[in-house]
Write a structure and sequence with these properties.
With 1068 residues, the chain is mostly beta strands. Among the domains are: 128 residues, Sandwich (Immunoglobulin-like); 108 residues, TonB-dependent receptor, plug domain (Ferric Hydroxamate Uptake Protein, Chain A, domain 1). The chain contains 13 helices and 59 strands. It comes from Segatella copri.
């Protein structure tokens, strides 16, 4: 396999010319005239003044010129000369990443006098973009209030972006956060495997993929109609790092806080106030250094950064405001110890009360070489090493120390880029890159996972987290890119290719040490009381669920077997950017992406025979089809009055992404050949075995009932594709720059799962005596599929859409004040939100009340309707030579809360899915017909009364009695957060250098500092996606707790407090 991969790499190196598909540079273009006539042969010279880098072009027969591949930023000096005419000079030109600034002019005769034009920013509105986009420069990054120093913090003012402050995930225009693209210097840094919430490598270890101190510019794209940009159906973030110049510049910085800079209190839902943190610490320090190796020729830029964070575990077994019952938990734990002792297994653990620790180191080196006036070459290396402790409990979850795990991640990134000006009309850009990612989870002493529900009103987890028993990932990603550009008259023709090659090794054996679930403490005690002196003999019917997976060593040769597979995605495209007139530009192009798959999962002859008999047309040992995926796009920009005061722009096009490769990896892991998965529900044969290495004893008892978990693709499955329409109007009114933006996205190929091991029985729940008002279909195991635990098949769907409407305003005042504000309304619907990395979870999380294998179109898990954003930044230069700078910034971000569903805890329709059945919201008369099972806390009649009270007083459900709760039918309350930044810089000039010392203070959620009721951040119940207020016990019996024990929202302990950070930074 590796030989084939290397062969393909060699083939591309030999046949592909050179360039890039993800934008890392800027450019200038324009038309030169004199007295209304075009000037042919005028020389345009652009000099990047900090580095002395020179770019040149000559106007063509239409008087037009274009220079691409330029360093973003500046300042540039651009001079335009022609014999017999006065030179025109543009000074202080600054270029935005990914944009080509228009510098057109009219020359005058007689070259005795030099004309200078100062360009200190945009002259009018942005006259280059066609689709929804946003550029952020280094100064804006430095001014942004931030403690996490993350890309999400910097990009959050984008009107179409919604962020989750707790997870760091970013959703653009209501799209799946796994469908985004993130590039650093054109190198892929998004998590292509699809495991991290923030979408970047190292995210699971709590790290950012790059030090923000090294970023020069960031570009956010949602609808770029430039066909060079691909690999996403959500949003794309392109970042370029700083480079060295002809002068030595550097920085040393330190940022930190402790518990004294974290709010002591916030208001809980019951009116009480949370307890203060007694121990919290964050430090971040590092340096940057850049300069010349050879003046005007060779430059370097280097950096190092170290970050350490320690957060206290607020909710421990001794915390006063937890939902679980501490005394009951201790009593149950003593029984666990006793069982282990009787079984002769030495088991030791304790309650998790340790701090959450996050550590990371980042380093990088970049070299830029001006080979000559026509060729520029750069190489870059970066490294991130991070570790984070995960698995800590919460207000309703109590975990033991062996349930915690450390997530470790290391990322190496290498890239090389060549930009060439072949002739006045031809240019080329090329890049090759390699990214290595190594992720690993490590737990404490191996132990089975034991979960007991309803310990009070919470859950206790003992033993290893079920997904961390054997979990490690290796990724190797190669990229080859090329753009060849031909400037022909008023046309700019681009021919390019972007190719990605992937190699994965994914160790992922869930439930390797066994997982046991007890529905109540009473169930556990009933099992325990039946055990004999050897710790065995309890009745397994009290074990709600048992799961166990093992590698079949006789096949794999390794008990910790990890599937390995390789794939590629090749992209080819052609585009014409046509300057139809001086004020109207049309861009149209066609892109073709071709996914390739080099490996095949193992053959399961038994399943393949079964699937063929059903007419499904797929089998375990099949590759995805390598089908060309076409993406035509057309965009336009019209400067209506030719003065950049009113600009209409937009376009329509198809965007092709990729699926997270973890979904493909599931098919290699779960063929039913290399691994065997066992499950049992209330099975008397199951025993609670404390030795993690003896779980096969249960497996032997279960072999008669089948042991194969199968994951497959539909034979016609394709990567994701979206058709997107964008229309924007930029205008200046009353001295304010306004933008009205509309984005509509329609799914062409999206993704959902079916469980083919279960089918509709032909009956409905309404035919039962206990739920005769609920018409949902009931399910049963497919008669001839008894030997398969579950069969999860991935399909495409064209259902699903989203739209986003926004209005934003910006105003710059000459005295240093910048104001921005925006409002966005978003609505998104999907068949499945695909929020997980595991097939079973993705199927289960598609909550439904209709058809489990044909889910209805409903609100998506990324549907956040209302977003309001505003910012104010003030810069004041003062002191001798204006070398002292005071900066004050305030950001407001308000958005609808996270969407959630209400589902039954349990399996009410028999489809073998837990917590996937949306509740029917009963009337009081229907509640009277329901049967309840009493608990120690509440009798059956008390539960009936509690449910009626909850239904009558809870938002959304009180207005939808007698209806089903729709998937993600409601959102948590609107959240408002203010973030503050203050910076004071003291500069002093010594020779040609300015040395500066800057003191900074950032306060996130500063409103909580003023009022403890303000700034709360909520999570929905016990889960980020759903709440399970009603438990279905089986046989028509339900349980319901007190409404105060099951609120729909809980405030986040950390993010509901104000959080400060002080900083000290030296620059020269």
């Amino acid at each position: 396999m590796l030989k084939r991969l290397h062969l393909l790499l060699a083939l591309f190196i030999l046949t592909v010319n050179a360039a890039m598909a993800q934008i890392t540079t800027s450019g200038i273009s324009g038309k030169i005239s004199s007295n209304g006539e075009t000037v042919i042969g005028a020389t345009v010279t652009a000099t990047h003044q900090p580095s002395g880098t020179v770019y040149r072009a000559v106007t063509n027969v239409d008087g037009r010129y274009t220079i691409q591949g330029m360093r973003p930023g500046g300042p540039y000096k651009v001079s335009i000369s022609y014999i017999g005419y006065k030179d025109k000079v543009f000074n202080n030109v600054s270029l935005n990443l990914g944009e080509s600034q228009n510098l057109s002019c009219s020359l005058q005769e007689d070259a005795k006098q030099l004309q200078e034009v100062v360009v200190s920013g945009k002259a009018g509105l942005n006259g280059t973009k066609t689709g929804a986009a946003m550029s952020i420069n280094a100064q804006q990054i430095a001014d942004m209030p931030s403690i996490s120093h993350s890309i999400a913090d910097v990009a959050r003012l984008n009107p179409q972006l919604t962020t989750n402050g707790q997870s760091g995930s970013m959703s653009f225009a209501g799209m799946n956060n796994r469908y985004n693209s993130f590039q650093i210097d054109g190198v892929m840094n998004n998590d292509v495997f699809g495991l991290t919430a923030n979408g970047s490598n190292g995210g699971q270890a709590g790290s950012q993929p790059v030090s923000m101190e090294t970023i020069d510019q960031i570009q956010v794209n949602i609808a770029p109609f430039d066909v060079r940009q691909g690999g996403f159906t959500g949003g794309a973030i392109n970042a370029v790092t700083k480079s060295g110049t002809n002068e030595f510049h550097g920085s040393g910085y330190f940022y930190g806080n402790n518990q004294d800079l974290v709010g002591r209190h916030y208001k809980n839902m019951d009116g009480t106030y949370a307890q203060p943190y007694d121990d919290e610490k964050e430090t971040l320090f590092g340096f940057t250094l850049g300069g010349p190796i050879i003046k005007n020729k060779l430059f370097f830029f280097a950096n190092y950064e170290n970050s350490e964070k320690s957060y206290p575990t607020q909710y421990t077994i001794d915390s006063p405001d937890v939902k679980f019952n501490p005394d009951l938990a201790k009593a149950l734990m003593s029984k666990i110890y006793d069982l282990a002792n009787r079984q002769g297994y030495d088991y030791a653990t304790s309650w998790a009360d340790k701090d959450k620790n996050v550590k990371s180191q980042k380093a990088g080196l970049k070299l830029d070489w001006n080979i000559n006036e026509f060729n520029k070459f750069s190489v870059r290396w970066s490294y991130v090493d991070a570790k984070q402790t995960l698995g800590l409990g919460g207000i309703a979850t109590l975990n033991t120390t062996d349930h915690l795990y450390d997530f470790k991640s290391k990322t190496h990134s290498f890239s090389a880029e060549l930009q060439s000006r072949i002739s006045p009309n031809l240019s080329n850009e090329a890049r090759v890159s390699y990214v290595s990612v190594r992720d690993e989870r490590t737990s404490g002493q191996p132990a089975p996972s034991i979960t007991i529900y309803k310990v009070g009103n919470g859950t206790m987890n003992i033993g290893n987290e079920y997904s961390s028993m054997a979990n490690g990932l290796k990724q190797d990603i190669y990229t080859l890119e090329d753009n060849f550009t031909w400037y022909k008259g008023n046309h700019t023709l681009t021919f390019g290719t972007h190719n990605e090659l992937y190699k994965f090794s994914n160790l992922f054996l869930q439930n390797l040490y066994g997982c046991y679930y007890f529905d109540t403490p009473d169930d556990f005690l009933n099992y325990y009381n039946g055990c004999g002196a050897d710790g065995f003999g309890g009745d397994g019917k009290y074990i709600k669920n048992f799961y166990f997976t093992q590698a079949n060593v006789e096949v794999t040769g390794n008990p910790r077997w990890a599937p390995e597979f390789s794939a590629a995605q090749l992209g080819f495209y052609v585009q014409d950017k046509w300057d139809v007139t001086d004020s109207f530009q049309l861009t149209y192009g066609l892109r073709m992406d071709m996914p390739l798959f080099f490996d095949t999962p193992a053959e399961n002859a038994k399943f393949n025979e079964w699937a063929a008999g059903k007419g499904y047309g797929f089998k375990t040992n099949q590759k995805l089809a390598s089908t060309p995926m076409w993406s035509p796009r057309v965009g336009f920009r019209w400067d209506i009055e030719k003065n950049r005061k009113y600009i209409l722009r937009g376009g329509i096009g198809v965007f092709t992404g990729r699926i997270p490769f973890v979904w493909l990896s599931n098919n290699f892991t779960n063929t039913g050949v290399q691994t065997s998965s066992y499950s049992a529900k209330n099975n008397s044969a199951v025993q609670l075995i404390m030795d993690p290495n003896k779980q096969t004893q249960n497996a032997d008892n279960l072999k008669a009932t089948g042991s194969q978990l199968i994951n497959v693709f539909d034979k016609d499955f394709k990567f994701t594709q979206t058709m997107r329409v964008n229309l924007g109007f930029d205008f200046n009114l009353l001295g304010i720059d306004w933008t009205a933006e509309g984005i509509f996205s329609k799914s062409l190929n999206d993704v959902y799962y079916k469980n083919l091991a279960y089918e509709e029985s032909g009956k409905t729940l309404s035919q039962t005596s206990y739920m005769n008002w609920d018409n949902r279909p009931l399910y049963t195991k497919v008669a001839d599929a008894k030997s398969f635990t579950n069969i999860y098949a991935m399909y495409n769907t064209s259902k699903g859409y989203s739209y986003s409407l926004s209005l934003s305003a910006a105003k710059h005042f000459a005295f240093g004040l910048d104001l921005n504000a925006s409002y966005t309304f978003t609505h998104s619907e999907s068949v499945s939100s695909m929020t997980s990395s595991v097939a079973q979870s993705n199927w289960r999380n598609t909550h439904t009340y209709r058809f489990s294998n044909n889910p209805e179109l409903a609100n998506s898990g990324y549907n956040v309707p209302h977003t309001v954003k505003a910012s104010a930044f003030y810069h004041f230069n003062w002191g001798t030579n204006k070398l002292f700078t005071t900066t004050v910034g305030l950001i407001y971000q308000g958005q609808s809360g996270s969407p959630y569903s209400l589902v039954y805890s349990g399996d009410i329709n028999g489809d073998n899915g837990t917590s996937n059945d949306l509740i029917f919201i009963p009337t009081d008369a229907q509640v009277d017909q329901m049967q309840f099972l009493g608990t120690d806390a509440y009798t059956a009649e008390q539960q009936r009364a509690n449910l009626k009270q909850w239904l009558a007083t809870t938002r959304y459900v009180k207005d939808h009695r007698g209806e089903y709760f729709e998937r993600y039918g409601d959102n948590l309350p609107f959240e408002s957060h203010f973030d503050f930044h203050f910076g004071q810089k003291f500069g002093i000039r010594t020779g040609k250098y300015v040395h500066a010392l800057e003191l900074t203070l950032d306060i996130m959620n500063v409103a909580n500092l003023l009022n403890k009721d303000w700034g709360r951040t909520f999570s929905s119940g016990y889960n980020s996606e759903f709440v399970s207020p009603i438990t279905y016990k089986g046989d028509g019996v339900f349980q319901f707790a007190n409404p105060s024990d099951m609120p729909l929202k809980y405030p986040s302990s950390y993010y509901s407090r104000w959080r400060g950070q002080v900083g000290l930074k030296y620059t020269f």
